[in-house]
Structure formats: structure tokens, C-alpha cells
Description:
Blueprint: H1 2-12, H2 16-25, H3 28-53, H4 64-77, H5 84-89, H6 94-103, H7 107-115, H8 118-121, H9 130-138, H10 143-153, H11 160-172, H12 176-188, H13 195-204, H14 209-218, H15 225-238, H16 241-249, H17 256-264, H18 269-282, H19 286-297, H20 303-315, H21 319-331, H22 337-349, H23 353-365, H24 372-384, H25 388-400, H26 407-415, H27 421-431, H28 439-452, H29 455-467, H30 476-488, H31 492-504, H32 511-523, H33 527-539, H34 549-561, H35 565-577, H36 584-597, H37 603-611, H38 621-633, H39 637-650, H40 657-670, H41 673-686, H42 692-704, H43 708-722, H44 728-740, H45 744-756, H46 763-775, H47 779-789, H48 807-816, H49 823-835
Amino acid sequence: MIQTVLLKKLQFSPKMETIAEVISVSNVTELVRVVWMEIAMASFAATVYFTFSGWLATPGKKPAAKNISNQKADKEYKPARKPAGKICEQEATPHQLVAKALRQGSIKSAIDLLQKLPEVMAGSVPTNLAPRLLTAVAKASDFDDVMTEMMTVLSGKIEARSLDAAVLEAARNKDVAACHQLQVMSRLLSIPKSHETLEALAKVHASDAVCLRDLIEDAEAPVSRTFAKLVLEACATLKDVDLAAEVFEKVADSDAPVLRGIVEKAAKEASVHSKEIRACGKNGDLDGAVQIFEQQHKHSANTLMYNSIIDACVECGNVEKALAYFSQARSSGLADAITYNTAMKGFLSQGKLDAATSLFAELSEKGLTPTLASYHGFLNFHVNARNSNGAWKVVEGMQAAGVLPTAVTCSILLKGRLDSPADLNRVFKLVDTIEPMDEVLFHTLADTCIRTRHLHLLSKYQEKLTSQGNARALTAPTYGSIIKAYGQTYDVKHCWDLWGEMIKNGVHPTAITLGCMVEALVSNWCTADAWKLVQEIRSDESTRSLVNTVIYSTILKGFAQAKETDKVMALYEEMKANSIHPNNITYNTILNAFAQGGAMDRVPALLDDMKHADPPAEPDIVTYSTIVKGYCNSGCLDRALEILKDMHSDGNFTPDEVMYNSLLDGCAKEHRPNDALKLLDDMRRTGVAPSNYTLSMMVKLMGRCKRLNQAFTLLEDISREYGLKVNIQVYTCLIQACFNNRQAAKAIAVHDQIIKEGLTPDEMTYSVLVKGCLQAGLVDKAVQLAKCAHGLAEPKVNSVRAPGINARCLDELVSALGGASSQEAKALVAEFAASRPSQGKGSSKGKGKSKGSDNTPPWR
């Protein structure tokens, strides 16, 4: 061993000759000593070098310098922790309140809160809340009741990805019942189903032919190959030949041969792996999809596998990887039209229109024929981008290539909400060429006609659909939607005609359809007719179950608005007799009837009913607000203030602005300014910001109680404290208060301040000013202000059209000038008449364009 080391040392040492001399004069032992000494010195030098350079460190520790740096970085970027108490004191956001209500199972409360969100008002339920809402409703025991409310306020406002999340969660939990309810909800709320949702539902309902048929009806053609495969495999198990035929009617021509093979050999290996790849892509597991593809690609490669991996890449947003696989498929001769369509889909998802267009052109060069899906991909892109010109160019390209637009083409255009008259006219002309019209297209048309108020066109397409020999082409939910639309246009007769047609055609109404009919009648002041219809439905054993709490509550609301308290109570007793359990909405509606009808003596008995209901109905903030409003309206302010005191003591609910405004209104009616000021301080303390409505009541009250200076001070302090821009209604109240306190000069100064701030006085403002000046004996000033109101004197109003004064005020002004026969009055009236715009052609006040107007399409 020593000799081997020695030989190596001799071989690489630069002092070989010197060592050779040593060997010749020394023995082997001396030689070994010299070599080991040199090795020891080299090792020591290396240890010192590596230690100082940081290569060596104590096990389990990092180099000191680096550790110090990291510690500094950690200290520098470590977020400061807030005290737990601070976090608890923070007010929950609206989103958090909705989420909390859903967690607590208060679905209807969550829906009420959702309606107030800016995103929902703008037309979209937030995606962080929608899946939770859908899941909660799907599991609700009162599904029909909740859906009636959701159709009213949330239809068309929930995105497909929210449905995706809810369906996938239910599918993962193998909750078949929830999946079924979600499928129903997607139809009723007009939520589009993505391929992912369709596939998940197809897996869950593999043994339910009815649900699978509904899915096929809802899916837009051409359906994805994966979805079709799942349904066809189920058809093979269920031996449902008719359903399989419906599937093949909706698949792309290029998919048909492959799908036939799947039906014949459902257990084919490639199909199984393809499904696994697509499933990984849908779940965002691109690494898993690639692993399966690469493993199977070693044994066999086919178009289906390539299409699956390319689609998975696109689904996961990795377009570069998708294009790499696309290149492999193209070079191997395995790329078909679907392969190209999927690659184009990837480009379009990134907004790369030019790249997608290049692939589309390459289709023809490769001898492949573009499919409907090829065109529909581009059509979807332009429609979603609100590019009307681009969308119609795609349609023109289809027609030029001999590819006829289908019902799916029209549905894409209609769902894209191209709502300009010109676009709608073109879509409707295109729809007229589709033969025959199926129910899916009609539903899309119905949604569009209802949304754009073209109900006469809806009747036309309804007649076309039924003329094709299918008298029961319309479903109960569709009838409900149409009835609701006609109810909103105050066409009660058409609502009844539709209801009669539905019954005649043997279409059984659902609870939601009945709810739509009842709502249409109640909103058109036909509450008694609605009650009669409900009694007829209940008298039939087969339809009795359709009548629920929501429907009764709607009728109660109608009687409450009409202040028919006796009918409210009669209907309430009928509910109890028929074991229809009232809910909070029911009780609050009845309380509102008491408040409006002056029957507050009945409140204690109703609250006792709430307490002993099964299950008990707990009062909410609406309950308290309604009772407070009723007591204030009936002159029982002290009882209303006691309720406010009890709420503060209980701590379960915080009074809102509506409640405080009701109390302030009560103070104004009873001339109790000190109580009003206490309420205003209470609002500040509880964080409730006053509004212009609050200010107007405070100004009125202070004016009536001869505290005019305090009214000015309050106005200035509150507007400054809350950054509130005072509106013209508050200023009008202040002007009236000035005149009530015999301060005409201050009233006129307020008018000048209004003009200076850039506000526009309205007719009421000028009428109050003119009348106040007349009462103060300032006739000349009244005339000058009346001229200002008509834009005939300075300062002129900041408006294109002068507001003028009302007829009663003008009569008083004419009387003050000596009557209608006086020359001064005649001249003033003539001057006012000349300042008014002509009511002939060009004036739109109170007029509408005739149906045959040149500027209005005949169908409008």
C-alpha cells in the first residue's frame, strides 16, 4: 500500500529527480517519513483554506456570515403581528357576513346580503361566494322555496367556474343528491355548464338515464369527446340505444368513428388512459397527465392520446407545452381537426388571435376540413370580447365555406349579449334559418327576449316551436320565466294565457312556476286572484305540495302593500290551518302590514307566535326595524325608543340607518328635537353614517321647533364629518325651514349657495322659494325667482332645461300680481309659455316613438 502511494507521489512530484537522489542514498524508512510529512502539511493547508472560504461548517449549522444575513432578512421581512383584540374589533366585511350566514345555514339571509353587494348589482356573484352558495342550496331541505328567491335576484349572475367548483366538490364527496340539485339549479339560474361540469355530472349519474339525457340536452354541440365517451359507456351499461343516438347527433363528425369504437369496446386501454390524462388536466395536475402520456406513448401513440394531453396542457394554462405536443402529433401524422381545434383554443385563451388564425389556415393546407368547433372557437372569442364585427365575420366565413350555422352558433351569439338592435336583428334573422328549432335554442332565445324586452318575438318563436308538432316542447321552468317576464311588463292577460296553455298541454307546474305566476299577479295588484289560484292548487291532491311558504309570503306582501290587514290575518290563519310553516320573511311581511295599516296592537300576539313556532322564528334586524317603523307611524315614539334600548342591551343586533331614520321621522312628527339629537349622537357612537335622508328629517325638525341656526350647524357639521355632499332635497327642506322661521333673506341666500355649488334646483325648490317670498310679502323677489326657474333671469340654473314652478305656485304668483286679468300677470305668463320647449316633433316629454318610426326596427 505504501509503495503504491509512493509511486503515485513520484509520478506527479515536480521534484522527481531530487527524490531519486534521496532514494539512492537513504533507506525506505526515511523515504516514507518524508512523504508522510509532505502529505500532512498539504492536508493542514487544505483544512485552513476550506475553513476560511466557507466550504466546511459545523454539522447542522450554516456558515456564520450567511446565517447572520438570513437572520437580518428574517427580522426585516417578518410581518408584525397584530394583537388579537384588534382583530376582533374589526368589522366584518360584506363578503365575510355572507360566508358566515352560509356557514350558519341561513341561506335566505345570505341571499339578502348578496343582493346588496356591488358585484351582484353589476350582474355577477363573487366567485369566492358563489360555490358556497350553490353547495348550501343544493343541500337545503327547502330547495324549492330558496330557488324561487334565487331565480328572482340571481338568475344569470353566477359564472360557470362557480358551478364547476360546487359540482366537483359534490362529486368528490360522492353526493349524488347534491349533484342532481346542482344540475337542476344550472338550468333554473341560467348557469352555463363547462366541459368539466358535464363530465363530472356524467360520471356521477352514470346509472341515471334521465339525468344523462338532460345533460345531453343542455350540452352545446359538438360535445367534448370525453363527455360523449362517458355517456356512451353509460348507454352501453344501461342498454339505452335512443340516448346513444342522441349523443352521436351532438358529436363532431371527426369524433364519430372513435366514439363508435368506444361503444363497441368500452374497456379499450387507450380510452382509459386518455380519460386519466384529461382528468389530470381538469384537476390542474399537468405533471400527472404528462407522466401517464409519456408512459403510454412508449408503447403506442394515437390521435386520442395526443388530443388528451394537448387539451390537458391548455386546461392547465401551459400553451407552450401544448404546442410542443401538437408539433409531435403533426410531424407524426396523428393530428386531426380536433388536435388543431385544441391548439387554437390554447392560443385564443391567451388572446393570440393571429397565431390561432395561422393554425386555422393550416387546416386546409393539410387536407383537413374545419369543423363547426373550429369556427365556434373563434366565435366565442369575439363574442366574449364584445367584438361584434369580428363575430359576424366568423359567421360569414362559415357560410362562405359551406358550413351552415346551427342552433349552437345562434346560442353563442345570443349568450354573448350582443344586445344592440342591429346585432339582435341579425341574430334573429339567422335563427329563422334554423330548422327545426329545438328546445335548447328556444330557451336561449327566451332568455334573450326576456332580457331585452322583445316579448312579441318570444311569442313568435314559441308558436314556431309548437307548430313543429311538439305541443309540450316548453318545460314548466320555461313557462315560469315567460310568465315572469310578461308580469314585469304589466301584461296580466298574457300571463293567464300562458298559464292556461301550460295546463292544456299537460305540462305540470312546479313550485317555482307557481311562484312566478303568483309574483306576476301580486306585482300587478291582482293579489286576490293570486290567492284564489293558490286555493285551487291546494284543493287538488296532485298539486297541493306546490304551495309553500314563499308563495304565501308573496300574497301576504300584496295584501300588506294594499293595507288590507284583515286579509293578511285571514291568509295567515289559512297558512297555520294548512300546516304551512311561516318563516322570518312571512312574519316580517305581516308586521309590515301592521305598521302600514295602523294595527300595532296585534304585534305582541304575532311575536308570541314567532316564539312558539316549530321551529321558533327568531326576530332579526328587519323584524325590529319594521316594529320601530310601525310604532313611529302610529305616534308611539316612546315604545319605539324602548325597542332601541333593548337592542343595545341585548347586543345581538346593531340598529342600522333605516331604523334610525324611522326613529328620527317619529321625532319629527312629535316635535321632539332633543330625542332626535340623542339619536344622532347614538348613530355616531355605533358607526352608522347619516345620509341625505337623515339630514332632511333633522332640518325639518329643527325648522319646526324654531331652531334654525342649529339646523344650519348640523348641516355643516355632518356634511364635513362624513364627507357627505348635500343634495337638492336637503337644501329645499332648509329653505322651507328658513321661511317657517321668518328668515326670507336666509332662504334666498341658500338658493344662491345652491347655484354656487353647481347643484340644479328642481321644480319643488323653486316652488318653495316663490311661495315663501309671496308669504313674506316679497312679490318682486318672487317674480325674479320664478323667472330664474324658467331660465329667464340670473342666476340661471345649471341645467339644459329649466325646471319651472308648479301650477299651484304659479296661480298664487298670478294672484299676487293682481289676478289673471292684470297686464303684469298676462305678460309674465306669456313669457313663461314662450320659454317652454315645443311639444311637437322633437319633444320627447311624455311621448314615445311610434311603432313605425324610421329610426326604430319593426321588431323593436
